[in-house]
Each structure stands twice: as structure tokens, then as C-alpha cells.
Specification:
Layout (H helix, E strand, L loop, with lengths): L7 E2 L3 E2 H14 L9 H22 L15 E11 L2 E10 L33 H11 L6 H20 L5 E16 L1 E13 L5 E8 L6 H13 L4 E7 L1 H11 L1
Parallel strand pairs: 5-8
Antiparallel strand pairs: 1-2, 3-4, 5-6, 6-7
Helix pairs in contact: 2-4, 3-4, 5-6
């Protein structure tokens, strides 16, 4: 990034604006909990994907498909529901079937609070977990005994949603990108604390968006950050005015960006 004599960054960004945005980002940090928190958004997507997969398991055919033979039952809209979780209130659309026999397991009928959605849920969205690790984590979230087929179906749906989220196009310009690490428990045979690196972009309107999540091992080098930066560039990011990160990562991040 270079500045011209008028105090604008590459791409015509006002450096003073970028400075104001970065101060705001430092003050607010990465919000994890609450209605607009990172974890609430991730939890909502996981719950919604699981509910759709459960309905598919119940009916025997996927959304938009036709059954192999008529069953007299089909999807019949949704009902909005807000449930309390460890990360705050989460609103979901619970699918209904025509016969009214669908009994969701991950968000049971009449339940207003569900457990199992703490900070470790964010690991599902970070690159680096195997499908088996995701499946094991989802199995722990369910509070009742469910079939392996259902867990596999839910895993496939969640992975599909995650891949779409990871590959979504990004803005071309971000005045500020804040990179931080959140340590969460991830099961790898045994439970271990591992860093989840969060890239939080702030656009020219001051709106914040999580650009990506990546599982690390701690002490990531320039090669790791080159991969992260290349991914952001491939998804459309052409210019960043200021990148703010932990001091420990500053050197290797600068080396990767060089």
C-alpha cells in the first residue's frame, strides 16, 4: 500500500477514515456473543443446515427433489423460532411437513434453550478440520441418540453450507482488515486448544464482515499467511489500506505480504 500527497491510500481510500475505523475495530474487537456476534451467526447457519438435513432424513428425499414414489407427505413451509444458546439468542426457521409428524432433534419442539453451542462451534467453519472431526463434533452437539445416517446427512449439509460461505465473493477494497486469534477446544482423538485465526474486514461504510476462518497450530509462519492472503485475493480482495494483527504475527504476515 502506498499513500499519495493528499493523504489517500491506494484505491482512493482516505487514510484518516482508515485510522478511525481501525480505532473502532480495536475498541470493539471481534464480537463473539450476542445477536450480532460471530458465534451467533455461525450457530444459526449450523442449526439451519441441520434442520434441513433432518427434514430430508424424515421425508426420504432432498429439498427440491421428488420422492421415488408418492408418499402423501412433503415440505410445508417453515415456522420462525428464537432459541437461547450459550452464545446468545439465535433465530431459525424450523421446516414443517404436511402431515405434521416432523420432530426435529437438534431444536426440539417447545424447547426454548439448547446447549452445546459454545466457542468450539466456530471451529466447524475454520479450514483445516477433516469431515470426520466435523462429524464427531456434530454428534456431540445432539443431546439425544441419533442414527449414524442422520449425523452423516447433517455433516454433509453443514459442510456444503460452510464451503459456500468460505467461497463467497468479497469486496474489492477494505480500509481495514483485523486479524485475530480465538483459542477453542478441538477434538483430535483427544481435546486440544488450537487457535482459530479470524480475518475481520471493515468496508468503506464501516460495516464489519468475517472474511474467513482458519485453524492453526500456533506459531504459523509466512507460508501459512501467504495461503491466507492468496485466498482473500482470489475471492476478490484487491486492496487493503491497513492490516492490524497481533504483534507476534506481524513479522511473518509482513513477510508473506511482501
Amino acid at each position: 500500500m502506498t499513500n499519495d500527497d493528499k493523504g489517500t491510500a491506494a484505491g482512493g481510500l482516505d487514510v484518516q477514515l482508515a485510522a478511525e475505523l481501525i480505532e473502532k475495530a480495536k475498541a470493539e474487537g471481534v464480537s463473539l456473543v450476542g445477536p450480532d456476534g460471530l458465534l451467533a451467526g455461525v450457530t444459526r447457519t449450523v442449526l439451519q443446515a441441520a434442520l434441513e438435513a433432518e427434514m430430508t432424513d424424515h421425508l426420504g428425499y432432498d429439498k427440491g427433489e421428488r420422492p421415488a414414489r408418492p408418499t402423501g407427505n412433503h415440505r410445508n413451509g417453515t415456522s420462525a423460532k428464537t432459541v437461547s444458546t450459550e452464545v446468545g439468542p439465535v433465530r431459525v426457521e424450523v421446516p414443517r411437513d404436511r402431515r405434521g409428524g416432523f420432530e426435529p432433534q437438534i431444536v426440539p419442539k417447545h424447547a426454548r434453550r439448547i446447549e452445546g453451542f459454545d466457542e468450539s462451534i466456530i471451529s466447524l467453519y475454520a479450514k483445516g478440520l477433516t469431515t470426520g472431526e466435523i462429524r464427531a463434533h456434530l454428534a456431540e452437539i445432539y443431546q439425544v441418540e441419533v442414527s449414524r445416517d442422520l449425523i452423516s446427512r447433517v455433516t454433509d449439509k453443514v459442510v456444503e453450507e460452510m464451503e459456500a460461505w468460505r467461497a463467497r465473493p468479497l469486496d474489492g477494497v477494505y480500509p481495514v482488515v483485523l486479524i485475530d486469534a480465538i483459542y477453542v477446544k478441538i477434538r483430535e482423538g483427544q481435546v486440544a486448544n488450537r487457535p482459530i485465526y479470524v480475518a475481520l474486514g471493515i468496508n468503506c461504510h464501516g460495516e464489519r464482515d468475517v472474511l474467513g476462518l482458519w485453524v492453526g497450530t500456533g506459531g504459523e509462519g509466512a507460508k501459512h499467511w501467504m495461503t491466507v492472503l492468496a485466498e482473500l485475493r482470489n475471492r476478490g480482495v484487491a486492496d487493503v489500506c491497513i492490516a492490524c494483527c497481533d504483534c507476534e504475527d506481524h513479522g511473518v504476515l509482513s513477510q508473506a505480504a511482501a
